Amino acid sequence: MALSSSSAPAKGVVVPVPVLALAASAAAIFLFFLVSSLSSSSPSSCTCPVPAATTTTTTTVGAEAYGRIGERISPTAEDVKWVKDQIEANGLRMQDNVLRKGINPRTRAQQLQDLVQFKGISHYEGEESSNHTALPCPGELLVEEHHSNYGEPWAGGRDVFEFLGDSVHLSPDARVLEIGCGTLRVGLHFIRYLNPGHFHCLERDELSLMAAFRYELPSQGLLHKRPLIVKGEDMDFSKFGSGMYDLIYASAVFLHMPDKLVWTGLESLVNKLKPFEGRIFVSHNIKFCSRLGGDECTKRLSKLGLEYLVKHTHDSLLFNHYEIWWLFINVFERSLGILLIRKLTVVIHVRKAGGIMGILL
């Protein structure tokens, strides 16, 4: 249709339907990237990492503690106040950390010795000893020795779950991949929250996997959640199928790997990250990237299709501790938005006072 002026008086605005649809799409994409850019405190370029790009997350997150369908992730300020009030109302005071009187107060080492020597307080003998336990568990796991394998309290796993869950607005139908889930210190909380089969993990240590399968999942009543936990080496994700993930995270794992292996893993993970929504979080440090230098790091990430976005810290609920996390996104997410905003031009024909005005969206 040719554009020409007319002597007829203006009656309104003529907007072809296809053009209107394109305009709406462009506006939606523009708003998405505008919100994304405002929500991050870091420029898009990666000079890996920059102190100015640090944000701090606390445990009292109010309404943000709830997922998309109303399920709570983090405790609210009201929750924390409630438990403090209960402690005060009951007149409780912390006492010396010594064994209390009870049926048979024992340390973990003593409990293990008792299991080896006496089995349970009441137990079956002879042929009956193997007919009543559906899933026999080693004594070392029963006394939870593996809870002391992390150099910090086991409760810190909940802190990580709450931080990551709130950061990505986790919902039960999200799909999550952990690299190096160990004995499920963090993973248990994701497995409990997510729909069955939605938590995946790659772990190389056999003893950790035994603790996960033979103690943690059964004792926590989570066998029905059917997490996909795979023993594997060298960042091989071939057994996880072609599904895409909303969240991929590695907690204190990459710092123990050769840089070359980390980059190999990232190259595979990019194709498993959901466009627009998917996030990769890496904790403690990203020396695999910073050792290359800022510019080279950025180029290497860009070549893979990744971009460093921001550095976060989050605090523990129960002890004096914080962790640092680096967030990476799919470069396609940002570049597509910029491309559409710059190159998608929608002209709406406006008849007004005998003339035509083009509006650039």
Automatic annotation (TrEMBL):
<protein>
    <recommendedName>
        <fullName>Methyltransferase type 12 domain-containing protein</fullName>
    </recommendedName>
</protein>
<dbReference type="InterPro" id="IPR013217">
    <property type="entry name" value="Methyltransf_12"/>
</dbReference>
<feature type="domain" description="Methyltransferase type 12">
    <location>
        <begin position="177"/>
        <end position="275"/>
    </location>
</feature>
<keyword id="KW-0812">Transmembrane</keyword>
<keyword id="KW-0472">Membrane</keyword>
<dbReference type="Pfam" id="PF08242">
    <property type="entry name" value="Methyltransf_12"/>
</dbReference>
<keyword id="KW-1133">Transmembrane helix</keyword>
<feature type="transmembrane region" description="Helical">
    <location>
        <begin position="12"/>
        <end position="35"/>
    </location>
</feature>
<dbReference type="InterPro" id="IPR029063">
    <property type="entry name" value="SAM-dependent_MTases_sf"/>
</dbReference>
